[in-house]
Each structure stands twice: as C-alpha cells, then as structure tokens.
Design a protein that fits this description.
By secondary structure, the protein is of the alpha/beta class. Helices cover 39% and strands 13% of the residues.
Length: 160
C-alpha cells in the first residue's frame, strides 16, 4: 500500500504545491515513486482551479524541480484519503483540525516543519505570497530539508 500524503497551505498555489513538488523529486531520486501518493490542497478556495504561482514555479525550476497540479480546497473527506496531512503553518493547522471529526483523523495532522532539522520548536513555513523573490527560495530551502527528513522517517521510522 502506498503512503498517501497531502500537503496543505492557505491558497494551494505557493507553499503546498512546492512541498508536493519537492517531495515528488526526492521520492523519485530514491526510486520510491511506487511507494507514495502525493497531493496538496488549500484551506481556502480563493485560487481553486489555478496552477501554482509562477514565482513558485520559476524558483523550483531553477533547482530542477517541477511543480504541477491545480489548486483545490482541502475537504473533510480528505482525511479518509490520506495517511498524513502536513500543514504549512499554525493557521492551516487550526483550519484543518476544525474539519477533523475523529481522533484518528486529528492524529494524521502535523506541522510540516516538525520534520525540518533546522527548526527549533513549532515553526511555520512563511507565506511568500505578498513578499519578494527571496521568500520563494526560502520556502524551497525549507521544503528540501523537511522532505528529505520526512522521507527518511517514513522509510525507516524512528523507534522501529
Ligand atoms: P499559499 O500562499 O498559501 O502558500 O498558497 C498564498 C496564496 C494566496 C493567498 C495567500 C497565501 N491569498 O491571499 O490570495
């Protein structure tokens, strides 16, 4: 059974499609495409149907990473479809938890940066939408560190 992961941010056009694209990249590098199903979603529907933000796409492309998909809103039904729901910030965490109807579903939700070896304590992926180019590169740096650790933990769970 593949491990199913949904990355979640606010608009599903900047941070979560970047996390999804970086995860696809590191999973492919490891030859583990068959072992994962990856998706992303937004807690808001403002940008539903849109491709990833062109600034995110350009910053990813400079690193050889392809962003794909169309924005969609995260739904309560997604808890049944995914094993892990990884949220980009604490606002996303509150919005997603408000949709969870069981402790099993709540237990699937974690802050993405819990996997960031450079983060100390609960940390958000900063929203780059209203900022400059640097913010998009910072998101990519965070995603590269966090996705590599995430993959390592899923392949060899700590404590096993
Ligand atoms: P994201 O960034 O949550 O990383 O996709 C945003 C995209 C759009 C908006 C806010 C954040 N917006 O307000 O439209």
């Amino acid at each position: 059974m593949p491990t199913r992961i949904c990355f979640v941010c606010l608009g599903n056009i900047c941070r979560s499609p970047t996390a999804e694209g970086v995860m696809r990249h590191v999973v492919r590098e490891a030859g583990l495409e068959h072992a994962f199903e990856l998706d992303s979603a937004g807690t808001a529907a403002y940008h539903a149907g849109e491709p990833p933000d062109r600034r995110s796409t350009a910053a990813a492309r400079r690193r050889g990473i392809v962003l794909s998909g169309r924005a969609r809103q995260f739904l309560a039904a997604d808890f049944a479809r995914f094993d892990h729901v990884l949220v980009m910030d604490r606002d996303n965490h509150a919005a997603v938890m408000a949709l969870a109807r069981s402790s099993e579903h709540k237990g699937k939700v974690r802050l993405f940066r819990d996997y960031d070896p450079a983060a100390s304590g609960p940390a958000d992926v900063p929203d780059p939408y209203y900022g400059g180019e640097h913010g998009f590169d910072e998101v990519l740096d965070i995603c590269e560190r966090s996705c590599r650790r995430l993959l390592a933990e899923l392949v060899e769970p700590v404590g096993d």
